Each structure stands twice: as C-alpha cells, then as structure tokens.
Write a sequence for this structure.
C-alpha cells in the first residue's frame, strides 16, 4: 500500500539531520520504503510518499527517527482514486540501494 506522511518540523535542523536515515531507509521495517520527498521551501515541514505493508509501520518509523523534532501525520492512500505524474523541475532519484 501507499502511505503519505506529513511532517511539521518543530526543529528543522534536527529533523533534516535525522531525516537522512529515513531517506536512506536505515533501520526501516521490512517492506517500508520512501518513494518521494517534498520539503517545504521555508523548512517548516515536508510531505513524503511511502510504500509499506501498513500505515502503522510508517508512523512508528518516522516517529522513532524524527523524535521530538517533528509532528508526523500519516494516512493510507486510496490508490484507486489517486493519480501521479513526475512533476517538471523535480529530479528523479535512483531507488535506494540501486
């Protein structure tokens, strides 16, 4: 399933430093992979798209890694009604570990 995580940073510097683990998948539960990362221009937060067996797996992982530097809200994506297209001006990154 796909899961969206909205992050509201209480301490952006700490959140970005810790968030590197999320981007690399360091310590991620089995089957949990970040697919997209959209940080706010002002550094106040970010929105990410994940692939995961459950919403709770993403919620637990981001809460553990970001700790008190961020408030995180996650929800499952209704894949039947969702759509996606690679936005112009946003680079495509090779999958982690590739």
């Amino acid at each position: 399933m796909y899961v969206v995580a909205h992050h509201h940073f209480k301490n952006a510097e700490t959140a970005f430093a810790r968030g590197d683990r999320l981007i690399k998948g360091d310590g991620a539960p089995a089957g949990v992979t970040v697919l997209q990362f959209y940080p706010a221009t002002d550094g106040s937060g970010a929105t990410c798209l994940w692939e995961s067996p459950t919403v709770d797996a993403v919620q637990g992982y981001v809460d553990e890694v970001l700790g008190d530097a961020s408030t995180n809200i996650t929800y499952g994506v209704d894949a039947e009604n969702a759509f996606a297209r690679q936005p112009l001006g946003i680079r495509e990154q090779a999958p982690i570990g590739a």
In short: The CA atoms of residues 30 and 52 lie 8 Å apart. The chain has a mean pLDDT of 91. The radius of gyration is 13 Å.
